Amino acid sequence: MLANGAKLEYKEKSDATGAYKELPGLKEIPDCGVEPEKVENTGLNDKNKQYENGIGDLGDMTYKFKYENGAATSAYRILRKAQESDKVLSFKETLKDGTTTEYDAEVSVKRTGGGVNGVVEVEAKMTICSDLKVTDPS
Length: 138
What we know:
Blueprint: E1 7-12, E2 21-22, E3 26-28, E4 35-40, E5 51-57, E6 60-66, H1 75-84, E7 88-94, E8 100-111, E9 121-128, E10 133-135
Antiparallel strand pairs: 1-2, 1-7, 3-6, 4-5, 6-9, 7-8, 8-9, 8-10
């Protein structure tokens, strides 16, 4: 499946019943999933090391957007404002097939550099503050 058609939406974390609003200009979505830590748990009589999965590490997820700063509704301004106020937002990523992933996160935003014929982008790094809630398409 192509990433084309994916979208990222946000809302205030405290607004449990409110509607998500789409962040415009999404260009790239990150890997998404839990990577459990490998924990060594070998007994004194084992011939080889024994392992089990520990708690998961969601890591950071970085989304890329087109740089646009001409309106208060631009992704750059919305996410930068959240970063400056240390707000935790609720996010919902929707893939073309209808699969959704919801989570809460703090965001840090940076504008990328550029050169001749190089595109300036916005990178939004999500520091996950909740579990992932994945909903399969119906």
